[in-house]
Every structure is written in structure tokens, then in C-alpha cells.
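Batch job 17 of 40 flagged for manual review because the log was empty.
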Amino acid sequence: MFSVLFEEAPDGQRYIDWLISGLQWTVALAFFGWCIAFVIGVAVGAGRTSPSRAIAIPCRFYTEFFRNIPVLIQMFLWYFVVPEFLPFGLGDAIKQMPPPWGAFWPALICLSLYTSARVSEQVRAGIEALPKGQREAANALSLSTWKTYRYVLIPQALRLIVPSLTSEVMGIYKNTSVALTIGLLELTAQARQISEATFQTFGAFASATLIYLALALVTFLFMTAVEHAVRIPGQEPATGRKRPRKLALAQEPKP
């Protein structure tokens, strides 16, 4: 089934080289997109909980705008529409970028902003889940609003939302496949090219599926390690496991 990957492609490479090239673009898009999304998402999520309405309202508008428009529509907007509204020289320079950069940068901006809106919701929920005493204690120490968020609220909120951020990291890997609609030859696009060139559809897409599963597994293991490292003491989840009877009897206080 996977022997098609080792056949020679029309350009002299093997088809597995096409998949590896697609994997590199997928990983680059997901990695840099997540880094940008995390920074923007934390700032916007914190802004949504700000006592200042001048900050909270624009942050809420940002979140609702980018979160509620389908990522495919946003991809088309950044690739086809936005360059038309830029100054003449800049818009032409973007449209004349050589491939794959002409598709990579709009895809990176699109995925970064879309994911940042989702991350901002997680950050907002994490800050609002903290006891009010945390903010009151910061005020009692005469910390400014900036220092209250920087040293008290955001660090604790991020530790609380690590499990939900794991889903967002996995989600950005899956959303990179939308970039094929604007011509970026990422993993799914390369699998489709192999299918069209060899008519081995099952082998091509089964290979891409296994690579996506491997990426998800690596992400899950990494985020699980992060979750264990930053977990707040006393908030470990209940495992539901029963202690062995002998161990339970041994730990009972003797009369």
C-alpha cells in the first residue's frame, strides 16, 4: 500500500520526498502560527478582563470577529482581498511574491489570528476562574494593574488552562490543511498531488493520516509533560483508581 511512496515522481524525486516537503511546510505553519497566536491570545484574553471598558470592548470585538468567521473565508480574505486594499506598491509586492511564500504568509497571518481569538477565550476563562482574593491581594500590595496581570493573574490562569490549550495546539495542525486552497503545498496538498499522479488514493491519504496522527501524539505527549510541570499543587485531577486493599489496610491507623 505504501510502496507508491518510494516510486519515482515526474520531477525525478520520490513521492515520499513530496510528503516530507509538505510535512515541513505544515510544521512551519503550525509552529510559527501558534507562537504568534499565543502572544496575541494572552494579550487579548487579559484585555477582555480589564476593568477599563476602553480596553475590554475592542478585545471582545477582536475575539468575536476572528473566532466566528470560518477559517476558509478568512484564508481567502487574506490571500485575495486584503492585498487589493493595501497601498499600490505594497499590494503588488505581496501578489508578486514567488511561491510558496506568496501563499505561506497569508496562511500564517490567517491561522495566527484565528487561533489567537480562540486562545484569548481560554485565557479569559482562566483569569475569571481565579478567586477574587487574588486580585484583592494584589491591590493590597499596591501593585499596579499591569503588575497584577503580569505577576499574579496571567501566570496562574495559564497554568489552569494548559489542558484546553492542548486542543488548540492540535487544532492548528489540522487547520493548516486549509492552506491548500490558496496553493500552499502542505501535507494534505502533497497527498492530493500524489493521488492525482499515481491514482493510489488510499496509499497517499493513508500516509498523510498516519503523519497527522504522529504529530498529534507528539503534541499530546509534550503538552502532558508541560501540564505536569506547571500544575498547581492541590489541583491534581482525581484518577478514580481504588487503592489496593492490602495497601489501604496498611495505611489505616492502628488502635
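Reviewer: the log was empty due to a logging misconfiguration, but the result itself is present. DSSP finds eleven helices and no strands in the chain. Unflagging and moving on to job 18.
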